[in-house]
Amino acid sequence: MKEITKSNKIILFFTSILAGYEIVSGIEGYPSHVIILLTISFGILLLTSLLLIFLGFGILEQPAVVVIASVLPLGISSAVVAINFSDMFVSYLLISLVGFLTIILSRFVSNKLLAVFSLASVHAIAGLIIFISPLFLYQKGVVNTSFLMVSLGGAFIGLGGIFLLLLRANKSLFTSKQIYSLFPTLLFFMTISFIIGFSEGM
Amino acid sequence: MLRKWFNLISQRISWYWELTKGYQTGLLLVTGITGYISARCPFHSWSLAAGLIGSLFLVISGSTILNMVYDKDIDMKMQRACCRPLPSGKISSMEALILGVTFSLAGLFWAFNLSIIYGFVVFSGLFIDVVIYTIWLKRRTPWAIVFGGISGGMPILAGRVLGIGDLDFIGLLFSLSILLWIPTHILTFSIKYSADYSNADIPTFFSKYGATKTRLIIAVSSLLAALSIAVGALALGIAWGYLRLLAVLSIGILSLIIASFSSSSEKVNFALFKYASLYMLGAMLMVSLGVLF
């Protein structure tokens, strides 16, 4: 099941509109380096939605897409760090770049375990930062309730990633048809969560 | 009896609509409106805005109908075009010719009434499209698409000219961006329907220079089109938010071009064709919104 239903195309279209809106006006108040990171992240959400509409779910299995998709959690987590833990931003950005380069390089070596390990560790670290930081910051009273939506967005990314990983490893409880049909909805709610979190949360 | 007449008239209108290629005409009309908005002219002049939309619609539709009349024999040989109202015999050539000439003349009359220089640009678009592109070059050389591109760039230039009252660098730059975008639109299409074009003896880049060179031309022209739009948008001073989105959309088209190089698949090629239209629509929207807000 690689083709996309009409209703899923509509969901993806709205996802791209929302991501486009966020790029244009939702992140205006942030410092320029955060704007760049969030533009990259929402840009990936926008382009992923459009490419899924035009090319179907088959693109999710392309190696290049796997690499580019890892920029989304890295971009969002770097933005979270830049906004709230500015002292650690440069160090985290370097770690992110090293992680990203490792993912790219691991595609060229025959050791599959290294490729999976690098991908999983980068996603896990970035995912944890996206999920835990807003909870921690909310508890400290640094951010308002809306910023918790970033955590929710992180949970959606994690969920999508786990589903796709299990599917690729042939260990999924669900069929590819079920997972793929759920994917656009997951992308839509992920985008909405991040938009509310970053636009209203600070 | 009334119902029968109503059905007959609505059927005719739907065939006429098909003759005007509503989607393509709509996209060109959007570029013209964008050119007009980009001039930051006082938008309370609704009569001028309505004049622009009306005259451009009539001339673009008119030239499309005239092209269809001239290309009827080609369309009859093409699988994807043989069901159009003219080759299928639903509408006679004379009827379509009268419609095309009426639309074109009415649009030109309206355009020259609005402004002489605007009328001249609109007339140039019509002349280059019908006479130079369709009648003279289309059946002779694949390079005809350059002239197709020039005529495609006329609506945005015309809109800008009507708004500011003169030709300027930004208008020419936007016009150039459409000219450079046209190869992505036409060449991806000609790759998908290469058999049709071959049946009709229409020379295309794909048939003359092969897939790799055609994709290279698509890549270079798309890159230059994206750059032209970006420079034009920067020169207009539109807000950074719109420029950011423009950059993201441009990265999308470049990614698809890279993908089409590496996979050569039919699906990626057609996705590029569809994305290119969406890209142009998005770019026009960004420029318009960026100027208005």
Produce the secondary structure layout.
The complex is a heterodimer of chains A (about 200) and B (about 290).
Chain A lengths: L5 H21 L5 H24 L7 H7 L1 H14 L4 H18 L5 H29 L7 H21 L7 H25 L2
Helix pairs in contact in A: 1-2, 1-8, 2-4, 4-5, 4-6, 5-6, 6-7, 7-8
Chain B lengths: L1 H18 L2 H17 L7 H25 L1 H6 L15 H22 L1 H22 L6 H9 L1 H11 L4 H24 L1 H6 L5 H32 L3 H24 L2 H27 L1
Structure description:
The complex is a heterodimer of chains A (202) and B (293). By secondary structure, chain A is mostly helical. Chain A has one domain (6-200). Helices cover 79% and strands 0% of the residues of chain A. Chain A has eight helices and no strands. Chain B has one domain (23-292): UbiA prenyltransferase (Tetracycline Repressor, domain 2, Orthogonal Bundle). In chain B, helix 2 packs antiparallel against helix 3 (46-70). The N and C termini of chain B lie far apart (52 Å). The mean pLDDT of chain B is 92.
Give a short synopsis of this structure:
The complex is a heterodimer of chains A (202) and B (293). Chain A has helices spanning 6-26, 32-55, 63-69, 71-84, 89-106, 112-140, 148-168, 176-200.
Give me the CATH architecture of chain B, please.
Orthogonal Bundle
Task: Evaluate the radius of gyration of chain B.
Answer: 19 Å
**On the 0-100 scale, what is the average pLDDT of chain A?**
89
Give the count of helical stretches of chain A: 8
Shape of chain B: globular
How far apart are the termini of chain A?
A: 41 Å
Total number of helices of chain B = 13
| Structural domain count of chain B | 1
Largest sheet of chain A: none
